[in-house]
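Loading example: each entry is read as two labelled lines plus one structure line.
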Amino acid sequence: MPIPQKLKTLVLATVVGMTPLAATAADSAIDAINAYRELLADGNPSELVAAQGEELWKTPRGPKNATLEQCDLGLGPGVVKGASAQLPRYFKDTGRVQDLETRLMTCLQTLQGVDTKELNKARFGKGLMEEMESLVAYVVTESKGQKIKVDMRHPEMKKMYALGKTAFFYRGGSMDFSCATCHGESGKRIRLQELPDLRTHEGAAAGWGSWPAYRVSNGQFWTMQHRLNDCYRQQRFPEPIYGSDVTIALSVYLAANGNGGTVMTPGIKR
Amino acid sequence: MKKMTLIAALLVAMPTAWADGDAQYADFKAMMDSSFRTKGIVDKYRMYQLDFQKACSGDKLPGKKVLAEIEAAQLKTIVYPADGKYFGDWKRGEKIAISGKGLTWSDKTPHDNGGGCYNCHQLSHHEISYGTIGPSLLEYGKARGSSDDVVKYTWGKIYNAKAYNACSNMPRNGDADILTEQQIKDVMAYLFDPQSPVNKK
């Protein structure tokens, strides 16, 4: 997805605009970034990605030459509105807990006959993955403004929550980091980047509720799988496999902690 | 030499770290094992825990006794400079403190890393882009002086932060081969030199 030139100029302007601020305090730099984010919220570039996704959704494609319109995201075949606000969930037909992206993989396979193996390589922004990103943008836009409403009654969901929580606090790697190192206390920052405390309702609602998002710094639309992939990179862990159980377990942990919060997807981020 | 001991320690630590626990923990291990793969310079084995990492992985800290045992064991890993010189070049030290690069799967080599100190600490009078996961170290040398005890403690803290706080969020820069001895000397100079912007306005 190419970025409009206008946006590139805007980004450059903030970077340049930040230099005079160096004389004052770090806080005012953060204020400037927040103000800039609000400015962009009016014209979120994810809209372009979502429009592309909607077209993909409704066009017959793949070996079976079918559309995705009968995809069941949990609210029944064909219901997209509000569906991602209630994901992850346990799906009877696959017998597993799935997040949005793994569920879309199921639909690509069963409805269109698409071989989704390529996605396991997690080459973001390329090939089938780029299509996945557009589909995600389309689906999550249809839940904007809804409440995060993840059904935690199924025992498999409870089990995934417990596994996700254990993963959240799991320290390892060259730097002994866990998710909690960077997201386990409120009001903390890395450099100037504010970090939500994802153990709490507020933090998880803000963090989970605003992804997938358009990232201004590199002009890319990032799915939640991509967000988690990059956090594990910063954590100095090996790579989490796309759609693997650890990514789903963490998603259940974050979504359940954020339950009742507002879906702000697609978000707009630094 | 250092690398070998680290890997050997890991191999020894792994079976114990993975051995205990109930059925739930067995599920957790299986999940982690099937969810990660080697990428670039980060081998899959990096996700297996050292004993202390496991002890520090709860939503609460372990008890006092466990913390004290970890600290005693970590203290023994600290290697003080053989030539007795603790200070390098503060200008190089500043670059190391600012750079957060290294040891991710997108890095080319496991050597030549930054210290990432600014990710977590305020240090100098003029750098405003600092994190707050650790305490401010502004005017560190000026405030603490440079008695042997302070210098030795600071070296030890940078070399292996877990020696003084078992479950510290701060990495083990020396013990885990993040920084070289020379780089730690440069960072030490950055903290203590009266001419360094950490101490001089």
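The radius of gyration of chain A is 19 Å.
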